[in-house]
Amino acid sequence: MRATGIGLVASPALAACGRGFGGGGDDAGDGVTLNMVWWGDATRAEKTQAALDLFMEANEGVSIKIEYQDSGPYQDKLATRFAAGDAPDLMAMRMDSLREYADRGALLDLNEYSGAIDLSGLSDNASTLAEVGDSVFGVPAGLNAIGFVVRKDLAEQYGVAVPDGDTWSWEDLAAFAKGITDASDGAVYGTGFEAQTLANIVVYTRQRGEDFFTEAGELGVTAATVQAWFELIGGMRDEGGFPPAGFFEQIGGSPDQSYIAQGKLASQIIPTNNFLGYNAACGGNLALLRIPGETQGTRRGQSIDCPHLWSVASASAHPEEAIRLLDFLTNDPEASLATGTTRGVPANASVAEEIKDSLEPDDQLATDYLIALQGEELPRSFTYPPGGSAVFDFLDAIAVEVEFGRQSPADGAAQFIEQAKQAIAG
To answer: In the chain, is it the N or the C terminus that has fewer CB atoms within a 10 Å radius of its CB?
Structure first.
């Protein structure tokens, strides 16, 4: 069921739900009650619940109170819980917030529980996502990356070849986009994506030999790269292959609502774990390509990332049970079969291979995409430094000013670097 603001789902084996997102449950009798929180929708909750039921069947005396809600208010609710001394046991942790919790000792260092949780099945790219110094403060709930999807039917209709997704360049993208727009007489724009989406600019930044955030917790992207990013998109817009300013303001967030599903765009960037939904919304006509520029840049730009991490609160009254649950979610194939790909491809590579054949064909394709990437030499994704979560707000505001021509790419880039450095410096 869904309640206002926070959805609470309970099975007969679960402890009674508490006061919304505001607190964990008390232990019942001689048993242990874990409080587990995340963001997501009812479908994700249903699939997660199926995995938790399996865990509870195998761990008599452990019950789990779960709470979930939309992603927007999640961070504020979680911060309130910690401030009140009422942290959940196991929680979804955003990559951009990990350091803010870990640096103040609010999360368990999983290295101290190496005998209870096995991370050997994770690739180097996956196992370091929550690494800070010599400590590990979380495990990926699933893995994803970004990919470019292209409407094959629209490309065929307008006589423009789908580029080679393994070798194409940003110039190839611009040519494809202009070709679609010209051939459709403006009825369809060749490509479109948001300049302010960090996942997009982070890949471009790495391709230029920089890290958006460095391992030392500093801002690594330069003003020249931010300017080049703005100019890349602005150039495609000027040629007509990219939509005009304000195009994305009124679009909804679901695949069904997307412009590519409506046939107004021929290509865009998506998280790979959303490929199933987007391809269904597009009538099965999508090709999944890598991001342009991977073979022309100074180095690879793509990386293995995750929708969120699972972290355990250092204040948990039941750390052993919380770690046991985390190990189950990470390493048990039955758990991943239950949850499916709602949070991406299983972080454990052998589990991903084991469950792949049971997935829908489009999820299999996205899983193969992730498995292939993990076998390649990719740059590492570093954790956001404290204050890094504010960087998106600066980029968002400035990108809009540049998009509408109220600020030049050079001035916008310089302002962004100044504001981002100040935020990270505290």
So the answer is: C
